[in-house]
Write a structure and sequence with these properties.
The protein is of the alpha/beta class. It contains 18 helices and 15 strands. Helix 3 runs antiparallel to helix 4 and helix 9 packs antiparallel against helix 10. The protein is globular.
């Protein structure tokens, strides 16, 4: 802890001004964001939490540790989501501050378990509890109403093969657990002489686990390839011009063997039932290229099959027009596509580019059969949710297709962050993921999370054909789901229960009714008996 000399009492050390700790907590919490795209310093993640942990363990009180946990969480959320500032302005800071509160208990626990000179027992508990508590935070903030699972710590390892193999076993959740455990073990090695062996055992356990996963985790079995074309029109003003650019790029594929053509999110700005001319133009494209075209309609629907309103829907169009396969986006972007509790937070529309009208939600996931492949569609933000892709593969999806648009954040970190999620969803499910965007970054990842073909950046338009690997088999994550989350909650429950039992045992016993009261003592020390 920083100290200074108290001028009123020379020679006495007192805590330095608290604003210094506060000033350090913000950048310490923000540091892990550098491991994510676009900086993509993935190798920083195993040590990125160390400065924050050191700050928390040295806090003078538990209350200050909780405060520094909140400030670090605020810094982390701002750093990972800073590209929202042009759209939400000051509301971005408000949201980051609210979500940062989730790290306040974590900060308190860090001081309790790592503060002072922990012995082997307390260090072992820290290696279990602190990663579990971090994972609990990620689970809570992954609720769609709080912004969804964007910026999960494990997602920073999307290009690390051993981490992707871990994801096939326990999803991104298992990767997050391992990353926090490594950071915790390093702090023990640096600060706890009596628990260095425990820290070394923790590091070794994670390393051996990752190596075992690399060597023995089931690998998806190859089942051929599908030729899928991604059409990225680039930055174009207006839905009509975007549609025309998509047509032009799709026609450039004529004569090439293709099983499916994929357009990005909001590639069609009118409901096809209301614009039969657009439906016919898409059908003509399908006939010319010899493949179905999967578009995304962002428009007001007045059809009898759903309540009226604006939907974002993946629509499959064949040579005779729309096939009837349609998937309406189920998980919407808070503030971007709807305003949570609009009666209370509707003012956000006056300070940023929040949605003036709430989009409508779909009610069920859909599989589409095309070109001999069963396609599971996701729309933009939904590729951040591991459970959606898992359920599609459980139902038989052979390829996952995520239609996206991040043109609002074209020059920020959002396009690269979003594209990286395709690698994680592929590794988790053992199925290839096609991430098709309007303005980049478009990318394809194979069943083990490996990149397939070129990435289409944010600086141009293109129509690119990919030989997408198909696979069979079931990953442990698809079979067992988010079991690391359950394990983490069990650890936290056991820790809380043990603490409660200890407090009960330490509580002094009350005297039995009618038993004589203990003798009282006067100020000068002579005992007296209570009056009868």
């Amino acid at each position: 802890m920083d100290e200074a000399v108290d001028g009123r009492h020379p020679g006495r050390a007192v805590p330095a001004p608290q604003w210094r700790r506060s000033a350090l907590a913000l950048p310490a919490g923000a540091l892990p964001a550098l491991a994510f795209p676009a900086p993509a310093l993935w190798w920083l993640a195993p040590v990125a939490l160390v400065p924050w942990l050191l700050l928390l363990r040295g806090a003078a009180t538990g209350r200050r540790a909780a405060r520094d946990g909140w400030l670090g969480g605020l810094g982390f959320m701002l750093a990972v989501h800073h590209w929202l500032l042009p759209s939400l302005h000051v509301f971005t800071v408000v949201l980051a501050g609210l979500l940062g509160l989730l790290w306040a208990p974590w900060g308190w626990w860090v001081r309790r378990l790592l503060g002072g000179r922990p012995g082997p027992g307390r260090a072992g508990v820290a290696l279990l509890v602190l990663p579990s508590a971090w994972l609990a935070i990620e689970v809570v903030r992954s609720w769609q109403g709080l912004g969804g699972p964007w910026g999960l710590l494990g997602a920073s390892q999307w290009q690390v093969d051993p981490a992707l193999r871990l994801a096939s076993l326990g999803g991104v959740w298992l990767v997050s657990l391992c990353v926090v455990a490594v950071n915790t073990a390093l702090v023990l090695l640096l600060t706890a002489p009596g628990a260095r062996l425990t820290g070394a055992v923790g590091l070794t356990t994670v390393a051996v686990g990752a190596a075992t996963a690399w060597a023995w985790a089931p690998v998806p079995r190859s089942a051929g390839t599908a030729r899928i074309a991604v059409v990225q029109p680039g930055v174009v003003d207006g839905p009509e011009a975007r549609f025309a650019r998509g047509e032009l790029l799709t026609r450039s594929l004529v004569g090439r063997p293709i099983d499916l053509v994929v357009w990005g999110e909001s590639s069609v700005g009118r409901d096809l039932a209301d614009r039969p001319d657009l439906a016919e133009r898409l059908a003509a494209l399908s006939r010319e290229v010899g493949a179905d075209v999967l578009v995304n309609v962002d428009a007001r629907s007045t059809g009898p099959d759903a309540p009226p309103g604006i939907y974002k829907s993946s629509v499959l169009v064949g040579p005779h027009g729309p096939t009837g396969d349609r998937y309406a986006k189920m998980r919407l972007v808070p503030f971007g596509e709807y305003v949570p509790a609009r009666s209370l937070l509707g003012w956000a529309t006056s300070v940023g580019r929040a949605a003036d009208e709430d989009r409508r939600r779909g009610t069920r996931q859909v599989l589409m059969d095309t070109g001999g492949v069963r396609v599971g569609p996701l729309v933009c933000f939904e590729s951040a949710f591991p459970d959606l892709s898992r359920r599609l593969v459980e139902r038989g999806a052979g390829v996952l297709v995520a239609q996206s648009a991040t043109s609002t954040f074209q020059d920020g970190w959002a396009p690269a962050q979003h594209a990286s999620l395709a690698a994680l969803r592929a590794a988790e499910t053992g199925r290839s993921v096609v991430h098709a965007t309007l303005t980049g970054i478009s990318a394809v990842h194979g069943p083990a999370g490996e990149p397939v073909g070129p990435r289409l950046g944010t600086r141009g338009a293109a129509a690119q054909v990919y030989r997408v690997p198909l696979a069979t088999g079931t990953t442990a994550y698809v079979r067992f789901g988010a079991w690391p989350v359950g394990a983490a909650l069990l650890v936290l429950g056991a820790y809380a229960g043990t603490g409660a039992v200890r407090r009960i045992r330490r509580r002094p016993a009350r005297p039995a009714p009618g038993s004589p009261a203990p003798p009282a003592r006067r100020a000068h020390g002579w005992p007296t008996r209570p009056a009868r």
